[in-house]
Amino acid sequence: MAHKNGFTLIEMLIVLMIVSTLTILVIPRIDQLEKVKEETYMIEQLTDDLLYAQQYAMTHKTAVVVVFYNAQGRYRMTESYTLGRTLIDRTLPSQWLFELATLQNPLTFLANGNVNKSGTILIKNGKTTYKVVFLLGKGRFYVQKL
Hints:
The chain crosses the membrane at residues 6-27. There is one protein chain. The chain is 36% helix and 30% strand. It contains 1 helix and 8 strands, in the order αββββββββ. The chain has one helix at 9-60, and strands at 64-69, 74-79, 86-91, 97-100, 107-109, 119-125, 128-134, 141-145. The strands form 2 sheets. Strands 3-2-1-5 form a 4-stranded antiparallel beta sheet, covered by helices on one side. A hairpin with a 6-residue loop joins β2 and β3. The longest helix has 52 residues, at 9-60. The protein starts with 8 loop residues before the first helix and ends with a strand.
């Protein structure tokens, strides 16, 4: 009886064919996953920045002004007034734009953490749109995917 010490060429080709087929099926999904991850990160970053502005206003007992640049993917947070000390000046990833729906610039977090006015901002990227709604009262806001 002869002992086999390895794999035949046919067995190796079958295994390589299975591995390549699985690789081809997985690669397009990774690209979609990257877009979703970037979108999620961007929305979380905006939310964190707005919460930071609110907390900064309350801890420093001063107003924080937030300016969203319409038709641009950029926002800026400054202390006390629009020409005050810049806290955050951030640009969104390419193709993302702000559209002021009912909110008018500037949005101000007062020293008690409340906003000076309510309103809605849309964040758009082609087919994807997010709505950021600022509520009167305790300075609350929420982000909703449309």
